[in-house]
């Protein structure tokens, strides 16, 4: 007893000393400053020397539709060929005001088509060869990695007679922004000239939220700054942090973290843009079960608002915007130019990969029973900070494959990880499933990632995905069988499951009071389900497959998880009641903030907050594209 008291007293003194150390450190506050290219802002003089009616800022407040200029009240956004479309002279003026940053769109696959001056067999061969590699698309100003919703108007082809490549849903022009003034000019011009505006970073979005016919696109790819702040100490938060330009992609920030001996939160795809759609949509990662969502890690952001003004959003400045930009979706409240995110100390990471299939000793029933056994461990694994990324697919009639690609133990040594998974591996063995797991410990996240995660494949127009965030209850005994039956129904019907055993861990070190879909906070399973069809499928076949995905397979998933949601960044463009599914109970507040910050409706993307006020003309049911005219519902 006495010993305990003494230890407690010593601990109290130590804590007091620690507090004093913290207080002393707080005095030397260190907030990251803006990048040099963020200080290059649009000035009144630049506007005055050019054309204020085209490039001037928007009002801070628009009280009603009647007070808008005639252009802003227009029913549809302008399209090339319209009388209101800017003249060649105006585009030239815009380009010179931008210092030459304007790009007229040439589709990535134009070299394969004789109706484009870029027609070139060697260039076409390159595009064909790399079409499924996201790296090529990321370097292009306008390409979309899921061409279905662009309208499939310029897919690469080996047909030497092909001559029908058109822009389809691709933007008309892009601004290759290298400084904040470029973003401001683009937003002011699009708003004043009633142009459709899109924001494109990498083009990863499943629903093509970064393309739009006849649009002016802000291309953020070249906003590349990466600054490591070892001793961030700002607004009452301290620790290591990174300030990242919005063009920075996952593999770049992982490499920077490796170099600086820390760990950061990023996605599993090497080329997803961290500060763009990823953080805006919530952002899941192999670190989620340990430290929470990517949006939770944001300490501060810099953003150009729809009226053209450049502001900071964090706990102290524009806190409502800070809330909305962390989970409320991309292309809605402004263009983010940079984010500052928290980093964590370097940590050991252990990964495990394995596969098994149906076969002579493993019936389909046993195969799915094994999937159920894995699901019954979802809560145990995520509570320990682990994450699983796996695939389940049909390989022939009644034949199935399971691929763990990988399971990931952040901050776990191999012995720690092995003791976590041993009971599960024993359960698999007792079902008669013989696997040979490869368990490897790496000293850092980057090495684990580089050593384990497969490369991503994009560019196909032969599939489409939907997703569900299953709450923890779905994997508890009372609901497990029903959940498994709903999942099995989809896979037996031909669906491809890309599953995550994941949770958004609570984390006191960061601000989690943000607009991330509340369904993420309850989930331990995030399942993406894809429908596929032959490459030469007709529109009718694609419509049929999409309808089956949404109204049969996913309907069962929704029924077994009432009130849960879906992840907007890897979601179904046809998602019913998308407001509830993608945003949950945050939708009303997000919509009010949309009206506050974007009263003229400058920003639009399919399924984005406020998108229900708009429609795109000339649509086929189940295959919505961005290649019609964007109009306001009246
Ligand atoms: C192969 C693959 C793997 C993926 N892996 C993961 C993963 O591990 N975890 C995860 O959470 N998600 C993942 N995703 C989904 C990914 O998060 C989303 O597609 C995300 O929207 C990509 O953002 P982006 O900025 O790179 O792409 P884009 O398609 O260029 O942009 C997506 C949306 O954000 C908007 N936007 C982009 N930049 C800005 C900006 N600076 N300011 C305002 N709006 C902006 C765009 O207008 C668009 O609406 C993956 C997707 C693919 C295709
Ligand atoms: C720019 O002009 C606006 C009004 O047109 C004015 O409110 C603002 O102060 C000016 N800014 C500078 C830096 O002069
Ligand atoms: C914009 O100007 C630059 C530099 O003069 C030029 O290279 C580019 O082609 C121009 N863009 C358009 C769309 O004309
Ligand atoms: C272009 O032409 C080819 C061959 O005639 C045809 O298969 C394809 O569907 C056409 N594409 C579009 C977008 O019209
Ligand atoms: C199937 O089980 C039999 C009997 O236990 C065994 O001899 C055989 O090796 C097993 N086959 C496979 C593919 O595991
Ligand atoms: C990683 O593990 C160490 C040692 O157990 C612990 O102190 C640290 O808080 C953990 N890091 C995270 C981010 O959980
Ligand atoms: C990444 O993995 C490859 C092999 O897959 C290896 O050659 C390379 O050295 C690794 N890079 C790092 C930084 O670990």
UniProtKB/TrEMBL annotation:
Record SUPFAM superfamilies: FAD-binding/transporter-associated domain-like
Gene3D superfamilies: 3.30.465.10
Keywords attached to this entry: Oxidoreductase, Signal
Signal peptide start-end: 1-23
Superkingdom of origin: Eukaryota
Domain FAD-binding PCMH-type residue range list: 167-346
A molecular function GO annotation: oxidoreductase activity
Family per similarity comment: Belongs to the oxygen-dependent FAD-linked oxidoreductase family.
Protein name listed in UniProt: FAD-binding PCMH-type domain-containing protein
Native source species: Parachaetomium inaequale
Species lineage: Eukaryota, Fungi, Dikarya, Ascomycota, Pezizomycotina
């Amino acid at each position: 007893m006495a010993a305990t008291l003494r230890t407690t007293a010593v601990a109290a003194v130590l804590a007091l000393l620690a507090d004093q150390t913290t207080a002393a450190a707080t005095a030397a506050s260190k907030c990251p400053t803006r990048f040099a290219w963020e200080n290059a802002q649009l000035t009144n003089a630049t506007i005055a020397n050019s054309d204020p009616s085209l490039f001037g800022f928007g009002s801070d407040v628009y009280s009603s539709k009647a007070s808008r200029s005639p252009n802003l009240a227009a029913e549809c956004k302008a399209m090339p060929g319209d009388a209101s479309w800017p003249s060649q002279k105006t585009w030239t003026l815009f380009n010179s005001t931008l210092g030459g940053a304007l790009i007229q769109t040439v589709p990535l696959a134009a070299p394969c088509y004789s109706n484009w001056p870029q027609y070139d067999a060697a260039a076409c061969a390159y595009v064909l060869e790399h079409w499924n590699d996201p790296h090529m698309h990321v370097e292009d100003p306008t390409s979309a990695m899921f061409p279905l919703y662009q309208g499939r108007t310029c897919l690469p082809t080996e047909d030497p007679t092909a001559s029908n490549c058109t822009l389809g849903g691709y933007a008309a022009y892009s601004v290759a922004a290298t400084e904040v003034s470029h973003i401001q000019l683009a937003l002011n011009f699009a708003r004043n000239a009633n142009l459709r505006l899109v924001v494109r970073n990498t083009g990863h979005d499943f629903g093509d939220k970064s393309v739009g016919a006849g649009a002016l696109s802000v291309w953020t790819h070249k906003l590349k700054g990466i600054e490591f702040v070892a001793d961030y100490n700002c607004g009452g938060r301290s620790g290591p942090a990174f300030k990242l330009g919005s063009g920075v992609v996952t593999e770049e920030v992982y490499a920077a973290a490796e170099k600086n001996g820390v760990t950061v939160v990023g996605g599993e795809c090497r080329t997803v843009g961290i500060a763009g759609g990823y953080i805006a949509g919530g952002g899941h990662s192999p670190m989620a079960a340990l430290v929470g969502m990517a949006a939770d890690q944001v300490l501060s952001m810099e953003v150009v608002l729809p009226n053209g003004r450049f502001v900071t959003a964090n706990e102290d400045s524009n806190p409502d915007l800070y809330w909305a930009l962390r989970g409320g979706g991309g292309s809605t409240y402004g263009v983010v130019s940079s984010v500052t995110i928290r980093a964590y100390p370097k940590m050991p990471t252990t990964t495990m990969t394995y596969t098994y299939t149906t076969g002579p000793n493993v019936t389909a029933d046993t195969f799915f029973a094994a999937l159920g056994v894995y699901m019954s461990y979802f809560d145990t694994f995520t509570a320990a900070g682990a994450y699983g990324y796996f695939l389940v697919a049909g390989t022939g009639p009644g034949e199935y494959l399971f691929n763990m690609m990988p399971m990931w133990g952040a901050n776990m040594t191999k012995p720690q990880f092995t003791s976590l998974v041993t009971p599960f591996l024993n359960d698999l063995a007792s079902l008669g499933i013989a696997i040979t797991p490869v368990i490897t410990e790496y000293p850092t996240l980057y090495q684990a990632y580089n050593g384990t995660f497969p490369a991503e494949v994009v560019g196909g127009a032969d599939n489409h995905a939907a997703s569900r965030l299953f709450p923890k209850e779905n994997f508890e005994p009372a609901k497990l069988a029903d959940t498994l039956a709903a999942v099995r129904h989809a896979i037996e019907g031909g669906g491809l499951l890309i599953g995550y055993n994941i949770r958004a861990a609570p984390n006191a070190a960061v601000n989690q009071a943000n607009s991330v879909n509340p369904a993420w906070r309850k989930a331990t399973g995030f399942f993406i389900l894809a429908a596929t069809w032959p490459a030469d499928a007709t529109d009718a076949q694609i419509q049929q497959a999409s309808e089956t995905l949404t109204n049969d397979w996913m309907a069962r998933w929704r029924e077994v998880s009432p009130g849960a949601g879906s992840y907007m960044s890897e979601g179904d463009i046809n998602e019913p009641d998308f407001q509830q599914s993608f945003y949950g109970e945050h939708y009303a507040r997000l919509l009010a903030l949309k009206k506050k910050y974007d009263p003229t409706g400058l920003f639009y993307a399919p399924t984005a907050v406020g998108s229900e006020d708009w429609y795109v003309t000339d649509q086929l049911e189940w295959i919505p594209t961005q290649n019609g005219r964007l109009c306001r519902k009246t």
